[in-house]
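Session log. Operator J.P. requested a structure for one protein chain; no other inputs attached. Running the standard single-chain path with token output.
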Amino acid sequence: MDNFEIIYKVLHFLEKAMDCDEPDMQEISAERFKISAKKYSLLLEMLVKRGYVDDVKIKRTLDGAIFCNIEDAKITLSGLEYLVNDPIMREMPKKFHKADWSAWA
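Structure written below.
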């Protein structure tokens, strides 16, 4: 799965999570995407820095490790606009088969 696919799925999930009292954040975990914890943390850090996601706790250790806590993560207005307006994000749903979206719908 490429980086933009992961970014799309994270933002799409957080958009859908707006309707949930307690969304299952494991649906957007590094394990779920089958990527390293470091890559996952870096992608989330990018989303936070761009203002697309809020309430993500990112911690860097002295040895360079990065840890993310997404329990309270929320999509922002900028994140919603990015999903709708960015050409790469608009193409993402076409890349996934209906079966891939069972947990995302």
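Operator note: The mean pLDDT is 89.
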